[in-house]
Amino acid sequence: MAAISSLRVVRPQIDLTSATSSSPYAGSVGEKAFFRIHSRKQLLGAAAADAVEKACPAAANGIARAAVSSSRIAKGAPKSCAKSNKPELLVTRDEGLELYEDMVLGRSFEDMCAQMYYRGKMFGFVHLYNGQEAVSTGFIKLLKKGDYVTSTYRDHVHALSKGVPARQVMAELFGKTTGCCRGQGGSMHMFSAEHGLLGGFAFIGEGIPVAVGAAFSSKYKREVLKEEGDMPVSIAFFGDGTANNGQFFECLNMAQLWKLPVIFVVENNLWAIGMSHFRSTSDPEIWKKGPAFGMASAHVDGMDVLKVREVAREAVERARRGDGPTLIECETYRFRGHSLADPDELREPAEKAHYAARDPIVALKKYLLENEIATEAELKTIEKKIDEVVEDAVEFADASPLPERSQLLENVFADPKGFGIGPDGRYRCEDPGFTAGTAQV
Amino acid sequence: MVGALGKNFATFASRLRGGHGCDTAAAAAVWAVSKRFMSSSGESITVREALNSAIDEEMSADSKVFVMGEEVGEYQGAYKVTKGLLQKFGPDRVLDTPITEAGFAGLGVGAAMYGLKPIVEFMTFNFAMQAIDHLINSAAKTNYMSGGTINVPIVFRGPNGAAAGVAAQHSQCFAAWYGQVPGLKVLVPYDAEDARGLMKAAIRDPDPVVFLENELLYGESFPVSKGVLDPSFTLPIGKAKIMREGNDLTLVAFSKMVGYALKAADELAKEGISVEVINLRSIRPLDRETINASVRKTSRLLTLEEGWPQHGVGAEICASVVEESFYYLDAPVERICGADVPMPYAANLERLAVPQIDDIIRAARRACFRKEDMRQATA
Questions:
Q1: Residues B253 and B358 in one domain
Q2: Which N-terminal stretch is annotated as signal sequence (chain B) (predicted)?
Q3: Which residues of B participate in catalysis according to the annotation?
Q4: Residue ranges making up the domain that contains A71
Q5: Fewest CB within 10 angstroms: A97, A103, A113, B301, which?
Q6: What is this structure's pTM?
Q7: Residue A280: which of B98, B164, B167 has the nearest Cβ?
């Protein structure tokens, strides 16, 4: 325990001018130092990391494997984020292509959103996910349709990864009635009962208790209702800013206490609108908050989809087995501003350039090509296919109708009698004029 | 440049030079450039500038005043209302908080109980729902629970109500919720004069004040008299303003809806209906005297708000008028409110969910017993 209490956050100086700046492990003094942890073993030193693992016996296996996979990478003098020197491949061909396609879909879709916003087809608050695709793809592609995901307002790509058709997401963003929420939710409120997407929340931290609740219901159905089959797992995606919010801590406690099949995924992109993670957090290492609750934790390079997938697989298996929750901190970065209305003036260009060089799609492409899992032509075909999917989504959304006037009053309640009794003594919702478009309730 | 500005600039500049923090000359230049002086006879400022200047002046005058909230400092304010304050007063008085509304609202209340004067910003009042326990239980009720021995001179401010296309969780109007709580003062400025006067009054007030702004009004420019720009300008809390005099109908509104009411009044004047528009300025205490006096003059009442109808601000006003001025009424009182639904995202549905000027005009005609089909309640 002494090792843990004596841990202090170290700020490694990063050499941003070196040619191998794409490597996360370059280490000489740079002009602007900013904080990155690569693996717990690298940060803490092997002895301390082992001590931490011993301190969390329930999670030892989980953490050990995660740390080992990260540190294996750290020791292997890599030229790039991908492990090109390893003999053993991390993905099969089908998996590799699936991951690539999903990430390219996420990227192309978000780029198209930006275009559509500036053309006025989309409005309100739009928060784009560019740069963080490895996290969404790495986790969600391991899930089944019956598993649950909750997200924040930065939820387009989580929706797409979970299987919500691009057409429906785009139509929702345009505010059309064919959208996944009939145009009533919008960019920040993507829901899909069919695909297990439980939102899409505007308040950060709001999705976490909801994911924990979905996990609770999974466990309840198994143990009380005696349902058969694999236990559905739920994942809550949220950011570094959320890790300071009370709801996060409350949920860590409850999830670990009741051993719920939930995974807490922190997409630490270092910024909450314009607030740097280090200015707002007393201890910036978010994964450390798990062991405080007795929970298995890991930290992973969120710009590398293969690393994310390895850690995710372990966490999902733990949860399905009934071994309880995991907290995973993914170091990642958003290439665009907080939203399309954010001037993004506070982030250093050097920091942006550093992470741009670690583009997860480029990294995966490199891995696939170098290990001859796929050819250039195949990847190009995928890219073309995705372009067509996104174009089709835009055309579909454009051509879709706006919601009818009568839709205004619909869906407030599952049982619409909640609008009460009208002056004629009958339920208001039974009055034929109710959905004719008058809002005089 | 200095010579071209009105004589009020000298007052501002001297205060800015005397202020704490760094770079006062640059701050003065920023302030000068940011003010939109038209001719020497009339000046115009935006609501944003009004709020910024009010907070700035109060912070300069009293070093116990400090600002706290998300993105208020380095980001210059999520809606730029606190622009320049960090540069002027330093990080000890302009605090960027983590995203912990419950935590920092409570922290502000504690600081206020112990002698400081916090201005707590919520990025929108929707987020204040995460802190509402502190607004009500520790801020509003403390003076009462402590038998008058501990007061809480805190201001909670931020945008309230619907913006444009921001969907259900960002568009709720909280005037009715906070207006119901004894112990809170709830202010709803409309124009730049309201913003300046009420903000200064709120900061100087020894009680907790919930200051509900409106995002869409921040950029709107209003002409102000020289008196408004004076650093000692305040408005009394609890007094409504009659924006436009009339004889046929009293139209009570607050915040952004005052603008709609005035436009509707212009249209109705062409039809011969003379509308008296009251800008509430304050939800709690509610200026029942002004409202009732007006209704006794016009004998018709319409209330207008963006929030939901049931238990809304309009409900209280109608009840108050029926209780006190029943025999003066010539027509049923009517409330124009937002639709009884969470705010939809789709643009056309959003337009249907908030009152539009046509709705006001139709309701006014109904109140004046013009032939208007009740079914045509909304556009």
A1: yes
A2: none
A3: 101, 170
A4: 33-79
A5: A97
A6: 0.81
A7: B98
